[in-house]
Specification:
326 residues; Rossmann fold; four-stranded parallel beta sheet; 12 helices; globular; binds ligand L6N33NVT; binds fe (ii) ion; metal ion binding; EC 4.98.1.1; metal-binding
């Protein structure tokens, strides 16, 4: 008899294999050649990418990666793997949980093949982004669909919807923030929610990402019963990106009388270069140099209890009809 099993494939953005210039260059070439990420026609973009960006940015980014690299590798890969293992333990034999990266390793196509080889005839594709963005969620699913396009015998497939306003997400975020705040030795004057940015033009073209970030922030503030300000980080290139910018916001806070700040990154399911280096290191420096007194970075939920219960809940819901009620 054919074994019929259910696979869950957690996907995240991707990361270099090593914090070295050559590995970062390989990763950035693949990442920044994705037309979902940089929406400039290749005939105009590729000469800039290959002629300028890939000759300058990899060495600088490699230095930044070295600041946060761990014994288990890149934080993003290590945490995503830990999340997959924890989710597997939570589901037991009911499903097979695996993980993959849109750029770099392990590739999505290879892990889909592996799930099929283990007998999965139903697969949930789960891009790990609470807020939908074409540059993240859609491109991860595109990549999976390209792999499926090559198959004669395809598994049945579902995709995980964004969970930016899910009460379980807001409650988990609020509980995690409350727990981290209670462990601080100071009371922040302000909580800042920093999301990854994207070009303003993509908002104008209809990407729902911005509105979903705003809604997450509004709901989090309501759950905490205190104001939470929003900002967007990681600007790339000369185009106008979503505002306000996190770095400029942090540098302007002391002049507004905010001397103690706590920053969280609710759009990231796992800590990574963007949170650990850009916010927890560079963001802190910018704030303190501008006259701030205390700075706390509140870590992502990662594979902690709040984060895993949340991931289990959002994934479990999409498996309805495939596995029986729990
Ligand atoms: C070039 C444009 C970029 C868009 C659009 C973009 C959207 C976007 N990215 C994330 C999540 C992550 N981005 C990460 C790193 C990263 N992002 C860009 C550029 C764009 N991102 C670059 C060039 C880099 C590489 C790092 C660098 O060289 O500075 C990461 C971290 C990866 C890691 O290895 O830790 C994440 C995660 C989201 C959610 C998003 C859309 C909203
Ligand atoms: Fe990014
Ligand atoms: Fe960054």
């Amino acid at each position: 008899m054919t074994v019929r099993r259910i696979g869950v494939l957690l996907t995240n953005l991707g990361t270099p294999d090593a914090p070295e210039t050559a590995a970062v260059k390989r990763y950035l070439r693949q990442f920044l050649s994705d037309r979902r990420v940089v929406e400039i026609p290749p005939i105009a973009w590729q000469p800039i990418l290959r002629g300028i960006i890939l000759n300058t940015r990899p060495a600088k980014s490699a230095r930044a990666y070295r600041e946060v690299w761990t014994e288990a590798g890149s934080p993003l890969a290590a945490i995503t793997r830990a999340q997959a293992e924890a989710l597997q333990a939570m589901f037991g034999d009911a499903v097979i949980v695996d993980w993959a990266m849109r750029y770099g390793n392990p590739p999505i196509a290879a892990r889909i093949d592996a799930l099929i080889a283990k007998g999965c005839d139903r697969i949930l594709l789960a891009p790990l982004y609470p807020q939908y963005c074409a540059a993240t969620t859609a491109t991860a699913n595109d990549d999976a669909f390209r792999a499926l396009a090559a198959l004669r015998f395809q598994p049945a497939v579902r995709t995980l919807p964004p969970w930016y306003d899910d009460p379980a997400y807001i409650a988990a975020l609020a509980a995690s923030v409350e727990q981290d705040l209670s462990a601080l030795d100071f009371a922040p004057d302000l909580i800042l929610a920093s999301f990854h940015g994207m070009p303003q033009r993509t908002l104008e073209l209809g990407d729902p990402y911005y509105h979903q970030c705003v809604e997450t922030t509004r709901l989090l503030a309501a759950a905490l019963g205190r104001p939470v300000e929003i900002a967007f980080q990681s600007r790339f290139g000369p185009a106008k990106w979503l505002e306000p910018a996190t770095d400029a916001t942090l540098e302007a806070l002391p002049a507004r009388g905010v001397r103690r700040v706590a920053v969280l990154c609710p759009g990231f399911v796992a800590d990574c270069l963007e949170t650990l280096e850009e916010i927890a290191l560079r963001g802190r420096d910018g704030f303190l140099e501008a006259g701030g007194e205390r700075f706390a970075y509140l870590a992502c939920m990662n594979d902690n209890q709040f984060g895993m219960n949340l991931l289990h809940a959002v994934v479990r819901r999409q498996l309805e009809g495939w596995i029986g009620p729990s």
